[in-house]
Every structure is written in C-alpha cells, then in structure tokens.
Amino acid sequence: MKVSSSRLIFLAVVLGLLATEVWPQALFPQAGVEYYFGANKFRSLKPWAGVRVSLSSWASALAKFTYHDLEFEYPDDAGNRIKRQASLGQFIGAFYYAREKLESYAAFSYFRGTEGYTAYNLDAGAGYKLNSFLGVEAGIYLLDEASVLWYPDEPERRIQVGAIRGGLNLFLAKGLQLNPQVYLYRNSEDVTATTLAVSLVFIPREPFTFVFTFWDYRESAAYRFSGKYFSVGLHLYY
Q1: What is the C-alpha to C-alpha distance for residues 96 and 61, in angstroms, rounded to an integer?
Q2: E-strand spans in the chain?
Q3: pLDDT digits (tens, 9 = 90+) for 164-177
Q4: Whole-angstrom Cα distance, residue 68 to residue 87?
Q5: What is the pLDDT of residues 155-164, one digit of tens each?
Q6: I need a surface site. Which of 43, 87, 156, 222 has the fewest CB within 10 A?
C-alpha cells in the first residue's frame, strides 16, 4: 500500500508529541497506528489520535479521529479481480467507566469517505475481572452505512449490521494479556458472518501498548471477504 509522505509526517509528529508529553496537564492525549493485511489482498493503515478527559476517578470521555487508508480486490461479474482503494475518516466520541473489577464503554462514530461513503456506528461493551488470571467480556456493535464501496457495480445501498461478541481476558504476566473473542454478525440483507479472533496485548511500560491480532472471518454473502487476517498496532495511552 502506498501512503503519502504527508500522512506519515503527520503521524510521526503526533507520536513524537505524545512521547515527549508536550501537552497541558489537564489533557490526556492518546494516539496510535494499526496495520491490517490478509485475504483478498486486503491492506489497511489506520493512524489515530484523540484526547481523553477525566470526568471523575471512575469515568472519562474521549474524542478521537481515525483515518482509514485501505485497499482490497473485488471480483466483478466476469470473474476478474479488480483492485479497489478507499479512504475513510472516522470521528469518535466515547465514554468509559471503570470501578474495581468492572470496565465498560460506549462509543459512537460517524464515518465519511470515498465515493460518498457515510456510516454511523455504536460500539459498546463491558468486562469483568474474575480473579488475577481471568476476566470475561461482552459487547454489541451496530452499523448503518450507505455506500458503493463494497459493491461498485451496483447502485448505492444502505445496509444495517448488528453484531454481538464475547471473549476472555487471560492475564499471563505483568503487561502481557491474551484475548480470545468470537463475533456473530447479521445484516439487513440476511447475510450472516462469524469471526474468531485472538489478540496478544503487550505493555512493556506506560504509555506504550502493542497489540497483535489474528482474525478468521467467515460470511455467507455472494461476495465474500471470508478469510484469515492479521493486524499489528502500537498505541500510546496517557
């Protein structure tokens, strides 16, 4: 995937500022970058930056922007595989609550991007730490999108997607976690999908967090993104 030098410079500046903590004490900046690759020659680079505001000793709010630079191959009606490229901007507002063994969040997003793509998203979930080794988590994901991005040979379509997820948090050692999860999807066109994912989270020292994830995605649509995917991410949380 080709990424413009201006985007890389912007990301480097944001990460550099965070690393040197050149911010007012009242703000808690966050930033990171994720890279995804896998089936259908899918590639996606996702730099992001945001600011967290503490509301109390248990609650906080987050304003965040994520840039999605992606490409993939699409099979047309003649069986040819066509390369597709797109870029999306995602504006996120989130609320977090954590107290004792409970952590929860709710995030609302607005997307806008290539070829008039628009979408609204609600992502919410909660986790509970059972003991020093094991935690459980669950959540929901709702998406309403209008696009020709995934089906360029057809008129614009509006699709609603709903998903539930469940998973475990295995605390292997200080700064090291394993997070297996399962996602179950259904959209407004009766397409169903399942994702099995396993993430390894490594926190060498604050504010740095590394996340490595393997995804196995299976769907029942005529056009399938089904396949195996990988992602790696570096995040800075203050």
Answers
A1: 6
A2: 28-38, 42-54, 59-75, 81-99, 102-113, 117-129, 134-147, 157-173, 176-187, 192-205, 208-219, 227-237
A3: 999 999 999 999 99
A4: 5
A5: 888 999 999 9
A6: 222
